[in-house]
Design brief:
Order of helices and strands: EEEHHHEHHHHHEEHHHHHEEH
Helix content: 55-70%
Number of strands: 8
Distance between the termini: 17 Å
Structural class: mainly alpha
Shape: globular
Radius of gyration: 24 Å
Length: about 375
């Protein structure tokens, strides 16, 4: 039996099967990356008991009601191999399950239905505008605090800029899950990506049948960000210290520069795609190439293009404002005898953050290989 080639796969023991709505099944295990699959396919996986693929294929076809080829079945099993679904194979997928947030999400969606009403959405938007106005009204105070904090703790600020974003990012994803739950979906797990130290939320989205439901689902995260931004601004004004500032700084830069960005896969980009029924571009520069190569023709294409162009123009204007605001170099002492004058410190912090997300901080090294 050559497990490395999946000629006779053996399904990992201890897997838990949880039936979901819409004919789906959630397969999870404390030490592997979970999967949401078609329930029939999930049952067919149980046939992986050490027999050759060709031997199980007739029964697989019967269970999934599809005349799949041996190559199709083999390719499907290979796609699951890195998750750790099979015995004797290394688990290369970096996702690890931490806990089930489902009960808490269900409590919120069942007991706090008012959170999902139009008046609350308008209120959240007004709170966000108020927080933004409040921060800009005290912009010089904010700049001085950032300079002082990063001058006193330059290396620690790099790490805290990253780690203080993680709980806010988790709440963002849980808000998406809460909207999914409101429409009948299920929030299945919170986990950790060991390659980037980011937390993630896995939820089923099969119940989001209409464009309206999908738009509300995508908007759930940004509206939670608005609450967080409002709270963090006011917490910092109430208790102005290094820790409250390091929670506020990444969220403030996120809202000032990136919350409205039309990046590939961003919430706003996907909302515009649902609104216009036009596939999203793979980022701003991809859109500009498309725009100049083939200008919009229909009214809906022009609405989409106008949103992208407005986002790009606003980002450029805000970027210029931030660069001007932080142009004064910050004297930074990295270690004894080494003192630097570093301009544009917050934009550099965001650059470091993106590098850390791409794997510079490889937390997977802290974990042994699982088998």
């Amino acid at each position: 039996m050559e497990q490395g080639e999946l000629r006779a796969p053996v399904l990992r023991s201890g897997l838990h099967y949880r039936p979901l709505k819409a004919g789906r099944v959630f397969i999870h295990h404390p030490k592997i990356a979970s999967k949401v699959l078609d329930a029939r396919v999930g049952e067919a996986l149980r046939l992986c008991r050490g027999q050759a693929l060709e031997e199980m294929l007739p029964e697989v076809r019967t269970m999934i009601d599809y005349d799949c080829t041996a190559q199709e079945w083999a390719n499907f099993l290979k796609s699951l191999a890195d998750t750790g679904m099979f015995e004797g194979l290394p688990k290369r997928n970096p996702r690890v399950r931490l806990f089930d947030p489902g009960p808490a999400i269900r409590f919120v969606t069942e007991r706090c239905r008012w959170l999902f009403t139009a008046p609350v959405v308008v209120l959240l938007f007004l709170l966000w505008i108020a927080a933004l106005a409040q921060l800009l009204a005290h912009w010089n105070l904010f700049l001085d605090a950032v300079r002082h904090a990063t001058q006193a703790h330059p290396l620690l600020s790099i790490l805290l800029f990253y780690f203080c974003f993680i709980p806010i990012g988790l709440l963002h994803e849980l808000a998406h899950g809460a909207v999914s739950s409101r429409f009948g979906g299920e929030v299945l797990e919170v986990g950790l990506r060991k390659d980037s130290a980011n937390l993630y939320v896995l939820s089923s989205q099969d119940m989001l049948k209409t464009a309206r439901a999908r738009v509300l689902y995508l908007a759930g995260g940004p509206f939670l960000d608005m609450i967080a931004f409002f709270l963090l601004v006011n917490i910092w004004f109430k208790w102005p210290n290094y820790i409250t500032l390091m929670f506020l700084l990444p969220q403030a830069l996120f809202f000032l520069q990136f919350s409205y960005a039309m990046e590939g896969g961003s919430d706003l980009s996907r909302i515009v795609s649902e609104w216009t029924e036009i596939p999203e571009s793979e980022g701003r520069w991809a859109f500009l190439k498309e725009f100049f190569k083939s200008p919009p023709k229909s009214a809906m294409e022009w609405k989409r293009a106008g949103t992208y162009l407005a986002s790009i123009a606003l980002q450029l204007a805000v970027a210029a404002f931030l660069i001007w605001s932080f142009r004064k170099p910050v004297p930074v002492s990295l270690w004894s005898g080494v003192r630097l004058q570093i301009p544009f410190w917050p934009p550099l912090l965001y650059l470091f953050y993106r590098l850390l997300r791409k794997g510079s901080l490889n937390v997977s090294r802290l974990f042994p290989k699982s088998r």
